[in-house]
Amino acid sequence: MAHIPDAVLSVPVLATGAVVSAAMLVVSLRRLDDDRIPQAAVLSATFFVSSLITVPLGPSSVHLLLNGLMGLLLGWTAVPALFVALILQAVFFGFGGLTVLGVNLMNLALPALLCGALLRPLLSPLVSAAPRVRAVHRARWIGAAAGALGVVGTGVMLAATLVLSGEVFLPAARLVALTFAPLALVEALITAVIVGFLVRVEPALLALADDQTDA
User: Fold this and answer.
1) Taking a C-beta distance cutoff of 8 angstroms, is the pair 60, 193 a contact?
2) Could you give the CA distance from residue 202 to residue 127 in angstroms, rounded to a whole number?
3) Bridge partners (DSSP) listed for residue 57
4) What is the C-alpha separation between 81 and 135, in angstroms, rounded?
5) CA 14/CA 107 separation, integer angstroms
6) Residue 97 contacts by C-beta under 8 Å, 6 or more apart in sequence?
7) Alpha-carbon distance 111 to 89, whole Å?
8) 28-32, 93-97, 102-106, 141-145: which range is least confident on average?
9) pLDDT at 111 over 90
10) C-alpha 213: how far from its chain's center?
11) In degrees, to the nearest 5, what angle opens at C-alpha 175 toward C-alphas 174 and 179?
12) Could you tell me if 146 and 69 are in contact, meaning their C-beta atoms sit under 8 angstroms apart?
């Protein structure tokens, strides 16, 4: 339920999401490194496909978010990568909506940026760390933390946007909290495996090349 449809949220929530997402896009595009575009395209396509596959869970359903992984690997570049995938899903498959695009992007991108800010610097020393087995083990824990944090952050923001749109959505917000808990565990495992694999075979992908803080 990470894709909120049109005609659900209140106007103030929609406006806030649009402003925050527009600001994130402006900053991320100013920081964009052309060398990171192929990697961003691959992760955007992965998010696009994986989030189309939903798994029934009680009265609701869940799908992979991968925003923790994207924030960890891409930093600020995760914002346009998520934006492209979300708008294509809304246009071609009706997932989410165009008026709520800003809120959906905000709910996914802010936790991704948090993962990048908190955990991405911890991966930089592992690029040349030795012994490699210890580096892979540490990378897996960092990846697990990113996967869980991305899902939990999105779940909290999604529940908040629903509650702020009206008390009638309080049961839905509680349902989100219940369904996102097992999803956080699944994404922690998936992200841990992927990050550990990258540290072992291609650690350069985890470098901080796109964090142009001086730009």
Assistant:
1) no
2) 9
3) 60
4) 28
5) 12
6) 4, 5, 6, 7, 90
7) 20
8) 93-97
9) yes
10) 21
11) 125
12) yes
Tokens 């917000």 belong to residue: 173
> What amino acid occupies position 148?
A
> For residue 116, what are the contacts with CB-CB under 8 A and spacing of at least 6?
71, 72, 74, 75, 76, 78, 211
Tell me what the mean pLDDT of segment 97-103 comes to.
92
Tally of CA atoms within 13 A in the half-sphere of 215 that contains its CB? 14
Q: How far apart are the C-alpha atoms of 91 and 137, rounded to whole Å? A: 41
What pairs with residue 56 in β-bridges?
Answer: 61
End-to-end Cα distance, the chain: 36
Q: Give the position of tokens 């106007």.
A: 11
Helix, strand, coil percent content, the chain, rounded in steps of 5: 75, 5, 20
Give the pTM: 0.89
One-letter amino acid at 101 equals L
Residue indicated by tokens 């396509």: 45
Cα-Cα-Cα-Cα dihedral sign, residues 93, 85, 177, 140:
positive
Q: How far apart are CA 178 and CA 139, in angstroms?
A: 28
Q: What is the mean pLDDT of the chain?
A: 86
All residues at 6 or more sequence positions from 102 whose CB lies less than 8 Å from its CB, including other chains: 14, 17, 18, 19, 20, 21, 22
Catalogue all structural domains in the chain, each as residue range(s) with its CATH number.
11-206 (1.10.1760.20)
List C-alpha distances in Å: 184 to 44, 78, 105, 156, 162.
20, 19, 19, 12, 20
Rounded CA separation 142/125 (Å): 12
